[in-house]
Every structure is written in structure tokens, then in C-alpha cells.
């Protein structure tokens, strides 16, 4: 009778796993908080489960949504900083240096072609640099106060992950075959960041509903317009 079970398709295995994770998420409310269960709420559960074991203990062993979100935001910010530094240095080495500046540092230089002729930054590098800048902007929220950021971040991440836009070129790994080794590394770093953001977005609705209901003044989460207006007020 169990003869056909060995032919189980991967899809038929995903569903029980999903239930398991959802059950774990519900169980979390009663004591043992399990942030990994949030992976079932991401747009790419398989990537989330792959990324989860790489998270630092501070994130992976968080005790509640607030701690998880706070640590996750710090970790994401750090990873984005790493990636933007890499992109910046790659752009610096692909952009031709100013001959006047070179002459200042290397007086013996005689206008040698080898120093000035560099390949311009490729499409993949430029796209990754731009996308990394965009996610950095989302997390820093125009330098809004830290405690005012979560609802704004939630809004912008929702657009990113559920807004129906195609994912950025850098997310696909710039897979048109023209990217260099360095670009491929940068794209890999970005894919990782993308999964982190997806996971961070997964915890935000619960985190925000909790903070709203436990707020002293029992206010609802401010609407985007109110938040934006408040943040631009002097
Ligand atoms: C790379 O991204 C940064 C941050 O968004 C931006 O200021 C810079 O102009 C970008 N560089 C290029 C060459 O596009
Ligand atoms: C995030 O959302 C706020 C409010 O909707 C908006 O004003 C802001 O421009 C967005 N930031 C980014 C980086 O998309």
C-alpha cells in the first residue's frame, strides 16, 4: 500500500513542510520562538531556508519578533555596506583615472596607455551598484529616527517584494553571460541580501501589529502620509 510513496514529487513534500513551519510559528507564540518559521512567509521559502543557517546567532536565536527584526536590520545593513563597498571599489578600478592625477603621483609616468585605458563598468556592475543603493536607501529611510523606520521600511519592502515589479538584474545574477568574475561575486552577495530582506519583510507585519497594540497611547500604525509628513517636520 505504501508502494507509490517513493514516487512522491518534491511538490508533495513541500506542503507538509509548510504546515510544519506554520505550526512552529503558531507554537512560537506560546513559548519557544522559532524565527525560522518565518521562512514560510517569504516570497522564496527555499532560498530563505538556505540562508537561515548562515545568520549570526544574534539573529537566528532571537527570542521574539522585536529582537529578530532589530538584529536582522543591523545584519542587513552590514551586508549592504559590504556589498556597496565592493561595488564602489570595482567601479573605481574600472573607471579611467585622470591623467593629471596620475602624473601627480607618478612623476616618471610618460602618458603610458596601460594606466589610462580601462574598461568602463559593465551593465551588471552598474545595475548591482544601483540596486544596492536602492535597498540601502530603503533601510536608512532618509535618516528617519530608528524607531520611526519600521512602518516605512515595511511599506517600501512590500512594494519591492509584492508590488508586481520584476526583480532587479542583480538578483538574477546578471546571467546574460557577459558578467566578469567580480560581477558574479557581487551578484551573489546581492542575492543573499535579497533573501535577508525578504525574511525581514516577513516578520514586519507581526512586529508592527504587536508594537501598535502595546503602544502606550494605543495609536494605530500611522498612515504613510502622516509618517512622511512627520519625518520632514522640523
Ligand atoms: C553607485 O551607487 C552609488 C550609491 O547609490 C551612487 O552614488 C553612485 O553614483 C553609483 N555609481 C555609478 C557609477 O553609477
Ligand atoms: C519609502 O516610503 C516612503 C513613504 O511611502 C517614501 O516617502 C520613500 O520615498 C520611500 N523610500 C524609498 C527609498 O523608496
From TrEMBL:
Residues 1-31 form the signal peptide. Keywords: Signal. This is Pectinesterase inhibitor domain-containing protein.
